[in-house]
Amino acid sequence: MEMEERMFKVYAAGDEKIQLKVIPGHFATPQSHISHYLEMTTMKTRCAEASRIARYLSTKYETSTPVDSIICLDGLEVVGAFLAEELAKAGVLSMNAHKTIYIVTPEFNGNGQLMFRDNIQHMVRNRNVVILMGSITTGETLRKCMESILYYGGTIQGVSAIFSAVNKVAGLDINAVFYKKDVPDYQTHKASECPMCRKGEKLDAIVNGYGYSKL
After folding, report:
1. How far is CA 149 from CA 124, 130, 157, 214, in A?
2. If 0-12 CB within 10 Å is exposed, 13-18 middle and 19+ buried, where does residue 61 land?
3. Interval 78-91: pLDDT, tens
4. Where are the beta strands (DSSP E) in 100-192?
5. What is the pTM of this model?
6. Are the C-beta atoms of 60 and 138 separated by less than 8 Å?
7. Which residues make Cβ contacts (< 8 Å) with residue 26, sequence separation at least 6?
8. Phi and psi at residue 101, to the nearest 5°
9. Radius of gyration over alpha carbons of the chain, in Å?
10. What value does the mean pLDDT take over residues 190-213?
């Protein structure tokens, strides 16, 4: 059966118009092997869906939490822009001189480390930062992002994601729309310990925060 034919939908608690498309199978991420691929393309690219997700995530932030920059990974700049708008409407404080929130995308260098170019470092240095991700599986990419932000002098005020398989990383709570409990039988394993590999099950696709490539 083709990947797309196995797909089912999971609905967000409290807002059934937010739908996560889930495809069961055997998938390899850069850090692990997972039992379900989470299709988020329309969430990232359709204004109506991106706005709805941003509104959902914004309710977790107190107006007393200062936010100067939203660091977007996994192609979530559209959601990030809407999240900035929602936080501003809610009265969340921006401490920078322009009284607005920056939307920032880091780069990965050849060693897999996150870096910020000289022209955008001022959007991180001495700024209150929220990290926005599509999917958090092991938390390894998030840890790298946190280390990079701290290296460049930022203060991490929160972490938001569409899906997270973990509730905390480095002591910080993950504010997600969907959690592991929302996806039945979701599993993540180190590649060397993957039970699907041991059973001889072939990989369906290589996946990352931007999508999938079938094998």
Report:
1. 7, 10, 11, 33
2. buried
3. 999 999 999 888 87
4. 102-104, 107-108, 114-115, 128-136, 155-164, 168-169, 172-179, 188-189
5. 0.92
6. no
7. 33, 35, 196, 197, 201, 202, 203, 204
8. -110, 130
9. 17
10. 93
